[in-house]
Amino acid sequence: xxxxxxxxxxxxxxxxxxxxxxxxxxxxxxxxxxxxxxxxxxxxxxxxxxxxxxxxxxxxxxxxxxxxxxxxxxxxxxxxxxxxxxxxxxxxxxxxxxxxxxxxxxxxxxxxxxxxxxxxxxxxxxxxxxxxxxxxxxxxxxxxxxxxxxxxxxxxxxxxxxxxxxxxxxxxxxxxxxxxxxxxxxxxxxxxxxxxxxxxxxxxxxxxxxxxxxxxxxxxxxxxxxxxxxxxxxxxxxxxxxxxxxxxxxxxxxxxxxxxxxxxxxxxxxxxxxxxxxxxxxxxxxxxxxxxxxxxxxxxxxxxxxxxxxxxxxxxxxxxxxxxxxxxxxxxxxxxxxxxxxxxxxxxxxxxxxxxxxxxxxxxxxxxxxxxxxxxxxxxxxxxxxxxxxxxx
Length: 393
Description:
Helix 1 packs across helix 17. Mean pLDDT is 79; it is low at 1-10, 131-135, 202-206 and 379-393. This protein has a three-stranded mixed sheet with strand order 2-4-3. The N and C termini lie close together (5 Å). The protein has one domain (15-383). Helices cover 58% and strands 5% of the residues. It has helices spanning 18-26, 37-48, 52-70, 91-105, 109-120, 122-132, 163-166, 180-194, 210-231, 235-245, 247-255, 261-264, 269-282, 291-305, 309-329, 335-343, 345-365, 379-383; strands at 15-16, 78-81, 138-143, 147-152, 374-375. The protein has 393 residues and is mainly α. The chain has 18 helices and five strands.
C-alpha cells in the first residue's frame, strides 16, 4: 500500500509503502519489563564485554567530566551530580558529597540552612536510589526564587542498544554508528544540561503536570542531541535518540504499553529533527560552543518548538491513529486510514507523517534498505502528488 499525502506527510525518500514498512517496523515488538539496576549493569557489562567494575569506573569518569562542565555555568545555585558507585555506599558518604558541593556553590546563609535539612534527609534519597523510586534521575528545587538546587543521579550506563525501545526487532543495527561512550554522553547531557538548567522547578521528587513534563523531556532531549553534536559531531548518535522517540515508542504502544499523556510526552522525534537541522545550520562553529553558549542554543530551540496542552492532545490522537494504521497494515488492511481521513484529515495526515518518520529512523539505525519500503518519486511525479490519502494497491 502506498500512502499519497501532502508535503507535511511526505518523506524526502519518496512514497511510503506502508504494508512493507509496517511489517518491518513492528516485527517482534513486545513489552519488556525493565530490569533493576544491578541486572542492567550486569547485562550492559556482558553486552560490551567488560566487567561490572569497569562499568562503574566509566560512570565515575563521566561524573567527573560533567562536574567540571557545570562549574562553567553562569546560573546561580548548585548542580550536584551523584556518582552511584562512590556516593551511595552509605548515608554518611552521600551526606559528605551533598555538603561538599552545596557549600562550594551557595553563599546565602538562609539558603544554606534550608539545604542543610536536605542533607539530613539524605537517607531517604539513598533509599530511593536503592530501588524504591529508581525510575527518576533528578530532583530540582527553587528556594524563595533566589537560588536553586538540582541533584542528578545519572544511571551508570545508557540503554545503548535501545532494549526497551527496540527489543525483539529482528533487523541488525548498522555497525559503527555510535560508541557506548556517546550514548553515555547523551544521557548525561539529557539530565545535566537539560533538566538541571530548565527554568521551572520540580519540587522534590514529585512528577510535574503532564504538559510541563512533555516540555521538560523535549528540552532535555534537545540538550542530549546538542551535547553530542558539540562534542563528537556524530549525527548517527543523535539519530539514535530520535529513533527512540518515534520508532521505539511506536513499537512500545503496539506491544501493549498504555498510551497515556505521560508516555506521549516523549514522542517528540519530529521536533528533535528540527533541532538537529538547526545545529547543522550553525556549521563548524557549533563544535566550539562553550557550556553556556550550548545552553543558550538549547533555550532558543526549545522556545521555538515548545508545545501547548492542545499540541499534546493532538499528539495523543496522532499516536493512537498511527498505531492502528500500522497494526492494520501488517495484515494488509486499511480500515482506519480510510475512516479517519473522512472526519479528521489533519490527524490522518500527521499520523502518516509520524509513520514516515518512524520508517526513516528504521533505515537510519538498522540495516534496512530504503528501497524496500519507499518508492522513489520522479521530480514531475512529486509535483503532481495527490493530497487524497487514498491508498493504492
